[in-house]
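REQUEST
  id: r-88c1
  op: predict_structure
  target: Response regulator transcription factor
  payload:
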Amino acid sequence: MTRVLSVDDDELVAKAIRSSLCAFGHEVDIATTGRDGLAKVMVGSYDVVTLDRVLPDLDGLAVLLTMRSVGIMTPVLLVSAMSAIDERVRSLRAGGDDYLTKPFSADEMAARVDVLARRGSVASSAAPRLALGALECDLLAHAARFHGRALDMLPTEQRILEYMMRHPGQLLTRTMIFEGVWGYRFDPGTNVIDVHVSRLRNKLAQAGASPAIRTVRGTGYMLSE
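RESPONSE
  id: r-88c1
  status: 200
  body:
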């Protein structure tokens, strides 16, 4: 039986999703806030997550980016009333696996959930990892290695490195890093990101790791070989 987590702030919609998916033989849990959804997905073993794009506390993309940054690769179906192409592209580039526009039919949602569940079962047969040159991140163990040698990383440094390795060669603003790693908006009055990135950069340099974190003055950071 496929286990599904439905994250939607509209309880009527969430219950309708649960009812329709249960009718197709799925087991469905409900979360009505982004933080509740994150809490459930962190401790639960789900095959698919349906995630509303707009939530009252955390933006759906912030929830998605947080999941991916901590190594949760459960397939995610974004559900939204926003049908613009750029919204679909943003959601998919943030780590979403599919995008369904409201209103939708129960049959279509069930079919998309089935496809994602099958895709997830195939992907789970291989240990997820990220690699950039000789630098590797094991997303299950939350560990980093360079040429097979373990790097001593604090949990936050590890999460930042994983997030950067998901976006190699891309300019990452401080806001993007903060939302991707911590799951909420960056306070421009704090230098917490700069402190963590500086420590991460020093550890990579001390290990002789070739990927370099480059500072883009006044904007953010970029990880490249």
